[in-house]
Amino acid sequence: MPSRRTRENLLTYMVVGPFAIVLAFPFYWMLWTALKTEGDLYNTKNNPFGFTQGSPTLANVRFLFEQTDYLRWLGNTALVGATVVIFTLLVSLPAGYALARLSGRWGQSLGVGIFLVYLVPPTLLFLPLSRLIAELGLQDSLWSLILVYPSFTIPFATWLLMGFFKSIPRELEDAALVDGASRVRSLLHVVFPISLPGILTVVIFSFSLCANEFVYALAFITNSSSKTISTGIYTELIRGDVFFWGALMAATLIPSIPLALLYNTFLDRFIAGFTGGAFR
């Protein structure tokens, strides 16, 4: 008769297994479609889970890298995401700490107010922001996205970090201040190292928001070489009623792999960041 531990593990796998299969299936389908030839893909008599008529092939990947600006879109996405993350941390770290420590009971109300800004739909902000971008002459420039994206990353990051800073005991800072450290030094050497899960959550979440954002990227950037990956794939690989399915799946799969690995590597800290900041 199996032991209690074995039964618990079996029950866990029975619950988690179906979810894992459902979540992994899109990656499997993207990979299989990316490796198929057009003849194999569009022939309804072929087995969709097998390869025939010249498949598997890397022709779709070669098309993506040789006949489109895909590498440029990846570079633009990384540049915009990294710059926005830096701006977001520079603003949200001191703002979150100030709301958690220095504003007393008003901090919670201000934090909720800032978070409500994050909930404003982009479609409502689109018209005033498009006017601002036009006045500044930033059309077809990545600076238009770098200027706009912090409008939704900073409110969320400030709210999240505010809750995380509240979870850190004040006694730790008081001990550092008693030992002669300044408040800035206590922040750098005591508070921020403890807050690493929250900071890491902000970095990953802000970068993901920038990589997935579509409305502003589609409206402000029309030049192919300046597009990010979210709009470059949609506008360059769907031409009228022609869908380059193989290239579409390859273009979607390539950036999703490092993001999935990143989430998996820092999963524990990511969960700790959300649970530490969201419910306080």
From TrEMBL:
<feature type="domain" description="ABC transmembrane type-1">
    <location>
        <begin position="74"/>
        <end position="266"/>
    </location>
</feature>
<keyword id="KW-0812">Transmembrane</keyword>
<dbReference type="GO" id="GO:0055085">
    <property type="term" value="P:transmembrane transport"/>
</dbReference>
<keyword id="KW-1133">Transmembrane helix</keyword>
<dbReference type="InterPro" id="IPR050901">
    <property type="entry name" value="BP-dep_ABC_trans_perm"/>
</dbReference>
<dbReference type="GO" id="GO:0005886">
    <property type="term" value="C:plasma membrane"/>
</dbReference>
<keyword id="KW-0762">Sugar transport</keyword>
<feature type="transmembrane region" description="Helical">
    <location>
        <begin position="112"/>
        <end position="130"/>
    </location>
</feature>
<dbReference type="Pfam" id="PF00528">
    <property type="entry name" value="BPD_transp_1"/>
</dbReference>
<keyword id="KW-0813">Transport</keyword>
<feature type="transmembrane region" description="Helical">
    <location>
        <begin position="12"/>
        <end position="32"/>
    </location>
</feature>
<feature type="transmembrane region" description="Helical">
    <location>
        <begin position="242"/>
        <end position="263"/>
    </location>
</feature>
<comment type="similarity">
    <text>Belongs to the binding-protein-dependent transport system permease family.</text>
</comment>
<feature type="transmembrane region" description="Helical">
    <location>
        <begin position="186"/>
        <end position="209"/>
    </location>
</feature>
<dbReference type="InterPro" id="IPR035906">
    <property type="entry name" value="MetI-like_sf"/>
</dbReference>
<feature type="transmembrane region" description="Helical">
    <location>
        <begin position="142"/>
        <end position="165"/>
    </location>
</feature>
<protein>
    <submittedName>
        <fullName>ABC-type sugar transport system permease component</fullName>
    </submittedName>
</protein>
<keyword id="KW-1003">Cell membrane</keyword>
<keyword id="KW-0472">Membrane</keyword>
<feature type="transmembrane region" description="Helical">
    <location>
        <begin position="78"/>
        <end position="100"/>
    </location>
</feature>
<dbReference type="InterPro" id="IPR000515">
    <property type="entry name" value="MetI-like"/>
</dbReference>
